[in-house]
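cache lookup: miss for this entity combination. No prior model stored, computing from scratch. Input as submitted by user K.M.:
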Amino acid sequence: MNAESVTAEPGTTERPDGTLRRFSDFAASRDDSIRDELIEAHIGLARHLARRFVDRGEPYDDLVQVASLALVKAVDRFDPDRGTSFATFATRTILGEIKRHFRDKAWAVRAPRRIQDLYVALRGSIALLSQELGRSPTIAELAKDMGVNEEEAIEALEAGQGYRTTSLEAPNRQGEGAPLSEFLGVDEDGFTEAERRLELSPILEALPARARTILQLRFEEGLTQSEIASRIGVSQMHVSRLIRVSLGKLRDEYST
Amino acid sequence: MEVSFAHDEQQGVPVLSVGGEIDVYTAPRLREHLLELALGGTNRAVVDLTDVTFVDSTGLGVLVSGLKRFREAGGDLVLVVVQPQILKVFEITGLSDVFRIHSSTGEAVAS
Amino acid sequence: MTDEVELSLPAKPELLSLARLTVAALASRADFDYEEIEDLRLAIDELCSPLVGQTGRPGQLRLRYLWDRSWLEVSCTIDDEPTNSPPGRSVSSTRPEHDEGSLGELGSFGSLGADAGEQELSDRILDALVDEHGSKTDGSTVQVWLRKRRPGTGP
């Protein structure tokens, strides 16, 4: 006896238990209540699959949502005539979506947190050195100032590409080494994922709110110190001092 | 390894209580007990898996065979599952949608 | 950086619980939580039971448990004389007898009958519980394996 005999031979399995049969009903009617019933009947599977991935950097709620949406997709697309069980089809669909979710997230994270934080500190260093030297610092000077090796400095800069600051857009090209602007690129809306994520950097978060605002205005929005001063209602000297102190703090935070 | 079986009856419904581990070694014994249940005269029975600590695909297969027999006779074989890990196995295989599963024998008998 | 434990036991079904016990002990040391340990016990059982079958096989069931920082891997094979069973299919042919088509009628499974139905259950269980699993045949020797990521070690 095979699956077809469920409908062909009366008396074998009259009771409405067969998942396949409900899928046939659903395929015929596209009735929402059958759909909901099918989803609910298999939501445990979705949750179990989601739970398996819980230790890998994504919150459980997000994973459950991905898995649940994948289950809905599976219910909508399953063809009961194809010969595989719904559990098989659903498992594959759900696992596929969960893995895709991780791949998408990995794309957005271009660099590990350590590199992101180094980038923030490097930015501070760039600003300070630029002021002291009257030109953009070279990689060698930056690396020396930060106490990291040049490869790390380059890695961090590449990871954090996209910052706009006036001091870097028009580098004074005296001094050795390549200008830093070569490492920086800006995408269409002027920001990159790295920049958005800098808002979450624990080092930045540890700064007092106003200092953080000032740094963001200066380095994300490219305002001059005078513009910042008038926007927040303090003197330009105060802004200058706050920037200096905050960048110094960032640098210290990183190197401990 | 250790598996136990007990036959009982509640409100006229035969109840087979299983305990321990159901794997490829112990599944044949489960099969025998399910057969015994099927020969008991009623077409409705309950298998109480409350004290089962392990079940694999072999065990599931035996339960499915039993279910088929009861449903062919126009009846049903209803399960009691309490341990989350056991319920999980039914859910990941889609069998939680095939069997009627209850969380207590009382419920299962009354259903 | 890889640690390894090898377990060799007679390929008898009553001894599969030893394989389960061993993986539970190792999984615990590899920082898996309670649910994951139970998952691995079941996964190892699903992996090895077909090799042993309901009646057992002459020879030894050999298990290798390997782990490094990120993964736990278990592979399993029978140390035996080559049997007449063809590779691959021997896995499903050792399942206990069932009424033919017993699973097919319930509508949740394909129409292929008991063995394929149970094999499918087994695969679904492995898919759900571990990250990777598979089998290789080397002549007439079947080796099955599974891998599971250790907790906190990335996607």
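stored under new cache key. Residues 7 and 27 of chain C are 15 Å apart (CA to CA).
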